[in-house]
Amino acid sequence: MLSSVSPGESVLRIGCGRGAALIPTARAVGPAGSVTGLDLAAAMLEATNDDAHGAGHTTSGRS
Question: In which domain, by residue range, is 28 found?
Fold first, then answer.
């Protein structure tokens, strides 16, 4: 997935689960890009938001 992502792009990941691919993808798109993760499990989204904040990324997660 990361090989096809360029700086400045917007990425949507449906069924992101624990978000293992979201933080590396956010690094790949950089500050000019955006990454959105969707999952049905609110607990997964909350954990992903915590991880993203810990990695220095801004989130606007909702569950």
Answer: 2-54
C-alpha angle with apex 53: 42 to 14, nearest 5 degrees? 40
Query: What pLDDT, in 10s, does the model give residues 13-52?
Result: 999 888 888 989 999 999 999 999 999 999 988 898 898 8
pLDDT of residue 59: 81
Angle at 18 between CA 24 and CA 49, to 5 degrees: 75
Q: Environment class of residue 19 by beta-carbon count within 10 Å: exposed (0-12), middle (13-18) or buried (19+)?
A: buried
Look at the chain and report how many structural domains it folds into: 1
